[in-house]
Amino acid sequence: MKSIAVRPRGLNDFRSEIKKAGSVCKALEKWLENLAEADRHDPAIWITRASADALRKRASELDAQKAAHLPLFGIPFAVKDNIHVAGLPTTAACPAAKQMPDADAPVVGALLNAGAICLGKANLDQFATGLVGTRSPFGIPKNVHHPDFIPGGSSSGSAAAVAMGLVPFALGTDTAGSGRVPAAFQGIFGWKPTRGLLSTRGVIPACRSLDCVSVFATNPSDLLEIASIVSQFDPLDPWSRPIEHHLRAHPAKPLRTIGVPYTEELEFFGDTGYELCWRETMQALKRHEVEIIEVTIRAFLETAQLLYQGPWIAERYAALKTFILEKPQDLLPVTRTILEEGSKPKAWEVFAAMDRLAFLRRESEKIWNLVDALCLPTTGTIYRKDEVEREPFLLNTNLGRNTNFFNLLDLCGIALPAGRRHPDGLPFGITLAMPAFSDERLLRWAIATTPLLCKEEVIELAVFGAHMRGLPLEKQLRTLGGEFLREDRTAPEYRMVDLDGKRPGVFRAQTGGESLALEVWQLPQSKVGNLMVQIPSPLGLGRVRLFSGNEILGFLCEPAPVAGCRDITQTGGWRFWLSQQRADQ
After folding, report:
1. Which of 582, 577, 584 is nearest to 516 (CA)?
2. Which one of the listed residues 136, 155, 158, 178 is annotated catalytic?
């Protein structure tokens, strides 16, 4: 199967596409093409999508209203399928629980009123129970960086839609880490708001007292913009909290001190690659105008254990009790096992745990006398899909070690990319935590700090042949500091020939061009010259147009020397050609 363009795109990228197209309607047609291609590559991102006719109608209405003044004019977004969107079914990844809401959840309504277009409902771990992204009867969305690894859950589809560039932002939920773990694994940003800052009315509950609607985006500036639209007090939501009073108590002043756990309190589960990324991130932060202070997180870690190993699992059971008792056969076995545990805690255990939580909350508050914010690895590692299949409960628990305590302790947080693991290039992420209603301060810090976490200015490089992963010249890129980012495709205007049995020649065709598979690598800008001197004629570096329409630097061939070479365009790419050659032998 050919790969799909997966370059994440932000709000301004989509605004530029609308402006270039001349209308939302015309831009939408290109997005529909991208969605169709993405469906072939990864059919598990969506559970339900709005029909093309419905999307065209929405785009026409926006164009007719001349609504360009709206802050999200024409911008597409995705919604996790445990949040109501009028006219689209809500399943929570359980077909037997499907319902058809007649009203939008308020958080969805706020985005639509701002001019956005909801493309559809995204996949999730069933009933938002899990951090792995593998617990859905609708399939497993892909990790865009490596197909063997989990996408993270429970908001798996929402994060994948953003990471693939299908939408600039998406709604998820976050009760135990579901808005942060998928962001870390897909290399994007995830904002877990203060509880009650965003209305949870119209959300299928997991733990109603702890649930949050979360937001995924490709950059923190977009998150801040979305936050200004969706942060609204909802008097009809009993868990909503008045905003203005609290925001005045937490002004958006700069961060001066950041706490990090003592080394002995960190856990990477044997993942030396993630551990190295953490150390590199700490070095990068020390170059910033903040003081790094080691603190104990024992109270946080004990609180995290209360969420699933304590009686709060009973709140999940309470939310779904009728369904669990009447239709247990319609639950996935792993989901059923978890939810049925919620029937076991006794009333006295609940009150004992509430008392313990009050103590732990008071203990954890001592940190805020020392530091402005707490920084943690979002997760200590990432797992392959087959590992999670063999050990679904323990590995899921491991992923929640640094996330499960947030809502019990009334914190807000943002997960952000902070490097890539060697040698596979999988994303590593950190999460910054602060007390409730510090959201704006967090987001502004992320905007200022994200560039610092990039060790060196880098460029993206389109690779077609022997430099791809597992092929003879991969080491050449690795030696220059190159890192694999993703699979991608060219625009349908290129041809490929077999130059000498060892390398392809790719050039832009006058006619009869096709879309070709490629890999996108990241290379330090300072090393581009070193690479160029190692490229033999007739190959060189030039601008390659991707399927998304964006252009990056890449390996191209001068058209003149290809006469007499075998045209292999129809195979779709160099790997496909090599596979065909092996099959013919």
Report:
1. 577
2. 178
pLDDT at 559: 73
- Residue 553, judged by CB atoms within 10 A of its CB (0-12, 13-18, 19+), counts as middle
Mean pLDDT of 415-427: 89
Burial of 104: CB neighbours in 10 Å, binned 0-12, 13-18, 19+: buried
Three-state DSSP state, 98: coil
Taking only the tens place, the pLDDT of each residue in 255-312 is 889 999 999 999 999 999 999 999 999 988 887 778 999 999 999 999 999 998 889 9
Specify the pTM: 0.81
Neighbouring residues of 64: CB distance < 8 A, sequence distance ≥ 6 = none
Tally of residues, the chain: 585
CB-based burial, 558-579: b 16+ in 10 Å, e otherwise: eeeebeeeeebbebbbbbbbbe
- Output 537-542 pairs: Cβ under 8 A, ≥24 positions apart: 537/561, 538/499, 538/505, 538/562, 539/503, 539/505, 541/461
The question of whether 154 is a catalytic residue gets the answer yes
By three-state DSSP, how is residue 293 classified? strand
110-113 contacts at long range (C-beta below 8 A, 24 or more positions apart) = 110/229, 110/230, 110/232, 111/72, 111/77, 111/171, 111/226, 111/229, 111/230
Domains of the chain in sequence order: 11-310+326-453 (3.90.1300.10), 458-584 (3.10.490.10)
Query: Does the pLDDT of residue 247 top 70, yes or no?
Result: no
**How far apart are alpha carbons 432 and 434 in whole angstroms?**
7
Taking residues 76-94, report their average pLDDT. 98
User: Going by C-beta distance under 8 Å and a sequence separation of 6 or more, which residues neighbour residue 240?
Assistant: 196, 199, 200, 201, 233, 234
Catalytic residue flag (residue 344): no
Name the β-bridge partners of 432.
375, 414
The pLDDT tens digits for 432-459 are: 999 999 999 999 989 888 776 755 567 8
Q: How many CA atoms lie within 13 A of 478 on its CB side?
A: 14
**Over 50: is that where the pLDDT of 90 sits?**
yes
Is 30 annotated in the active site? no
Q: How far apart are CA 288 and CA 335, in angstroms?
A: 43
Evaluate if residue 79 carries a pLDDT over 50. yes
117, 170 in Cβ contact below 8 A?
A: no
pLDDT, mean of residues 415-429: 90
CA distances to 467, 478, 480, 572 from 525, in Å: 17, 14, 10, 29
553 touches 528 (CB < 8 A): yes
Specify the residue for token string 């190993």: 309
Kindly give the pairing relationship between strand 76-80 and strand 169-173: parallel
Task: Assign 42 to helix, strand or coil.
Answer: coil
List 121, 136, 142, 154, catalytic entry: 154
Q: What are phi and psi of 289, to 5 degrees?
A: -85, 55
